[in-house]
Structures are given as C-alpha cells and as structure tokens.
Amino acid sequence: MSMEKSLAFLSDIANQYKESYLSIVNLRKKMKFSSDEKNFQLYRRGRYAEFNLVCDRGTAFGLQSNGRIESILASLPSDVKWSYAKTKEYVKMEKNLLKYINKDWNV
C-alpha cells in the first residue's frame, strides 16, 4: 500500500471513530444519573486509583525513581470515593457491571 493510501486509510479510521464516538455522546449527554449511580461511579474510580497506586508498574517505577509526583499521579481521577464496606446497592450495581466486562482479569 502506498504512503498516500495508508494516510487516507488512517484518516478514514480517525473520521469514523470521531463520528461513532460523537453519536454515542450525543445520544447519552443528557442522561440523568441517580445519587446511587454517581456514588458507585466514584467508588469504581477509587478502585482504579487503588490499583494504580498499588499494582501499576509504571506508577511504582515513577515513584521509586523520584519522578515528578504531579506527572505520575496526573492519570488519577480527580473525584473518587473509598468505602469501608460495600452497600447492598453497590453489590447489585457491581453484579450488573460484571455481566459486561471480562471476568478473566477482573479481581
């Protein structure tokens, strides 16, 4: 494939991605979420932050090599929530979520 065809192909992929993503955003941008759903989102973000700080090798390397802390932690979500114990609502929402994600890597 020539360079011109390769660039045209990549450009088409980018445009299709943009159009697909924008259609999803436009469909869902006015959706309202309950306080339970928002709290569950914050809880899941907290779980991501836990994983990133405890298990992620790139984060560990950055911290151990005296890297710039602000840059290392920039990928963490700004709003998170940690809970000592899951509520019944969290358990229900998590069970629903697990129907859609790959269970092989989910801890």
Distance between the termini: 43 Å
Beta-strand proportion: under 5%
- Total count of strands: 0
Contiguous uncertain segments of 5+ residues: none
Order of helices and strands: HHHHH
For the largest beta-sheet, the strand count, sense and barrel status come to:
none
Total DSSP helices: 5
User: What is the quaternary state of this protein?
Assistant: single chain
What shape does the CA trace take? extended
Pathway: Porphyrin-containing compound metabolism; protoporphyrin-IX biosynthesis; protoporphyrinogen-IX from coproporphyrinogen-III (O2 route): step 1/1
Organism: SAR86 cluster bacterium SAR86B
Pfam families: Coprogen_oxidas
Subunit structure: Homodimer.
Which helices and strands occur, and which strands form pairs?
Elements: H1 3-28, H2 35-54, H3 57-64, H4 69-72, H5 88-98
Keywords:
107 residues, mainly alpha, 5 helices, 0% strand, extended
Describe the structure.
64% of the residues lie in helices and 0% in strands. It is extended, with a radius of gyration of 19 Å. It has helices at 3-28, 35-54, 57-64, 69-72, 88-98. The chain is an all-alpha fold and 107 residues long. Its EC number is 1.3.3.3. Keywords: Heme biosynthesis, Oxidoreductase, Porphyrin biosynthesis. One of its GO terms (cellular component) is cytoplasm.
